[in-house]
TrEMBL record:
UniProt protein name: Aspartyl/glutamyl-tRNA(Asn/Gln) amidotransferase subunit C
Protein EC: 6.3.5.-
SUPFAM superfamilies noted in UniProt: Glu-tRNAGln amidotransferase C subunit
Family statement drawn from the similarity comment of this UniProt entry: Belongs to the GatC family.
Amino acid sequence: MKISKEEVLHVAHLARLDIDETDVDRFAGQIGTILDYVDTLKQVDTAGVPATSHAITLTNAFREDEAQGHLDPQDALANAPEKDDGAFTVPRVI
């Protein structure tokens, strides 16, 4: 599918892209190639193929939410450069 320079400039304007005039012909050719490929894909017989939203059927890759023990406060503060009354001491941020 052939796309004109004017169409490239129009789409670039809509997308708020500043395209150099020297690149317009190259982009027109590249976009035309992409549109030709999409036309090729439209010719594939997809009858009987269920619609999908993901490439794989994995629904949830997260681990089960299980209660865990917490870190002992003394262990948490063991490597702290500065601590005060069971808490980390950090520089004041204003």
